[in-house]
Amino acid sequence: MGTLDEPLLHYAFSKGIADWFERHNCYSTDEAVHALEAEGKSTDWTALVWGNSQARRRALKDLSYRLPCRPLLRFFYVYLWRMGILDGRPGFDYAVLLSFYEYLIGLKRRERTRGEESRGQEGGKETST
After folding, report:
1. Beta-carbon neighbour count of residue 31 at 10 Å?
2. Cα 28 from chain centroid?
3. pLDDT at 32 over 90
4. How many whole angstroms separate alpha carbon 38 and alpha carbon 70?
5. What is the pLDDT of residues 37-87, one digit of tens each?
6. Phi, psi of 44 (to 5 degrees)
7. Is the per-residue pLDDT at 13 higher than 90?
8. Buried b / exposed e along 70-98 (16+ C-beta atoms within 10 A)
């Protein structure tokens, strides 16, 4: 695998906001599934410290699933820490969109958890005919 000599230009909104929402709706479903799978596992601390960039990123993400108020933290991270505030309204809008994306992940996690619980309860009930 090689490296790029020039920066990779990525235009997240080149197809419009509706396309962004559609893609992130799919991404949030995948993230929710992964978060539920990671819930029962312990954090891989060796990957967090000594792993390659991909393993470290995954370990950080698995650890971040346990944080309370994840959407709010994502907003502050993007808007303040990553200096989205300097971009004015577009920076604010982007920070809100990413925090909404985090909210979707949490919402879908809860939805799947409730769905699994209700399926488990239905399996134990007898129905009379």
Report:
1. 20
2. 6
3. yes
4. 16
5. 888 788 788 888 888 989 898 888 888 888 899 999 999 999 999 999 999
6. -85, 90
7. no
8. bbeebbeebbeeeebeeeeeebeebbbbb
Q: pLDDT of 93-118, one tens digit each?
A: 999 999 999 999 999 999 999 987 77
Question: How far is Cα of residue 32 from the mean position of the Cα atoms in its chain?
Answer: 7
Residue 27 tokens, joined: 């991404």
pLDDT surpassing 80 at residue 128: no
Q: What is the 3-state secondary structure (H, E, C) of 96-128?
A: HHHHHHHHHHHHHHHHHHHHHHHHHHHHHCCCC
> Which tokens hold the place of 81?
């820490």
Asked if 59 and 47 touch (Cβ cutoff 8 Å), the reply is yes
C-alpha dihedral (49, 55, 60, 66), degrees to nearest 10: -120
DSSP 83-100: -GGGG-HHHHHHHHHHHH
Torsion sign, CA atoms 62, 67, 21, 91: negative
